[in-house]
Amino acid sequence: MDNKKIKKDNGRRQYKQINVCFDIYARFFTMNNTIKCSSQVRSRLITAIVVILIFVVSFVIGAVSIIRIGNTTLDGNVTEVTGVLTKYDKEENDFVIRINDVDGTYNASPLINALKDKLGSDVAAEEYAENLAGKLITFYIPQHPSSTNNVWILGLKVDEDIAIDYTTLIPKLQQTNKTTTTALVVCAVVFAVVACALIIAYTRQSPQKTYVLSEKFAEFLANQQPTYANKNKTMPVILIVEGVVFLLSVLACVICENFVSEKVSDIMYTVSGIYMLAVVASAIVMYVILKNKTRQMYKDNYPFDSTDFCLLPVGKKMKKEFIEHMKAFRATNPDLYTDGGNLYDLLFTDHGVEVYSIDEENESEDFDQDDEQPFFDNKNSDEEYHAKNITYGRTPELTLTYDQLNFEALPYFNVANKPIVVVIKSRLDPNTVSLPDDFQNDIHLHLDGDLLSTLSTYNVRVERLELILGDLPTLLTQNAHTRMKFTKIPDEKEKNN
Fold this sequence. Notes:
By secondary structure, this protein is of the alpha+beta class. The protein has helices at 3-26, 40-71, 109-119, 122-130, 166-204, 213-222, 228-231, 234-259, 262-301, 316-332, 358-364, 402-405, 449-457, 465-470, 472-478, 492-496; strands at 34-38, 78-89, 94-99, 102-107, 136-142, 155-158, 161-164, 208-212, 336-338, 344-349, 352-357, 398-400, 408-415, 418-425, 444-446, 488-489. It is elongated and about 110 Å long.
């Protein structure tokens, strides 16, 4: 062998040893057992900021619109309009007046409100307006209305009797607009201040937060665990059918309103509203039922087989194929598991756990297109799948005894709507065990039926596991309302602050 290559390899080996020593020192004689995740607080702050800014813009637009109305419609300059009142539309609060055989529509809302104040009741004001039909009247409108499609009536004269004086009504409307504008500006300022505060809080938030690894690992695993709804599709299907029926009923209401009659549509809208309330009530009831059924399923069957975690959004055929592959793999590698803390393959044996690098497997073996068919190959889906032994012919990076591993069981309740998730975690002492430089965390494993069988086969002691599984129904009942909280670990900046 070339001397230069020998020196180079020795240098790499010494450099790796130095890194290992430095890493052990940096751990402060303990494992890291943390993970960095995107800050959920930042995402929530972004949502809150966007919503608040929408309110700010809405308040500003409202204030500007009212100011514009004050500078145009309510500037005090009016013009007279005289003609025969054709009708008063109560629903729209509009006067329809005919002038020279041409009908014009005007917004009577300010006039009707003034009549209500004058006559003392809504009914009296509306009766007065309806009795004006067929009469020759004169009303006053702004010379420069803010909108030609929405012209306000600011005063009314019947014959020679002034019913509503525009010189009195306009100042009242101006005062109302001033009060409303002030309120909108104040709200806009308050919301803007809140938005600024949230923006400052957002900038001070780190893009990533450090969490306890076992807790986030449990959250990841919980998303894969089954529920009663996964096993029994009846109730979710019922809810979907109810939702579709409700949407169809609303569509029928719209069709009836436009093509049949308003009375029929009103009846259908009422029925749809009652039905919607019934759907909401049934959804709440079904949610409670499914939650209780799921808890009972966990009491009876936890821990589940690995095939029960196949919650993939795929077709039945593909899912069946995937499960068959899993079974074949587990049959060939009955005691092989993946470490969630460091991404190593772990093989349980009589003398301890053999640790294999996943990357080493992929780099050391050449791909043989004639070896195994690609996964999910539909052309050969009917052929028998033969899994290979992952660790055959390989040398482990290290072997850890069960005493060195010192496993413990960590139960987490109500994670992602799952009653319980149990994480099997090691408690390695880096001062007594020589670990690879990228082995930063303790070993984290997901407790399922296969792992439980492996632990039993090799008589591996796991602290608290027997207590958890020994009286699981009582434990789940006691923690039925326990809310899972994730522990955030402060970074160096937060520690200094």
